Amino acid sequence: GDATPSAIRLESRKKKFTIKEQSEGDPRAPCVKVLAKHGITPEFIRDVYQTFVEIDTKETGFMSFEAFCKVFSQKPSEKMREVFDAFDAEREGELDLRQFVIGLSTFAKTNLETKVRFAFMMYDEEQDGSVSREELSEMLRGMAPYMRSAHRDAHLERIYALHNLHPNSRVSFDELMDYMMENQDLILPPKKKKKKPPPDEAEGDAFGF
Question: pTM of this prediction?
Answer without folding.
Answer: 0.79
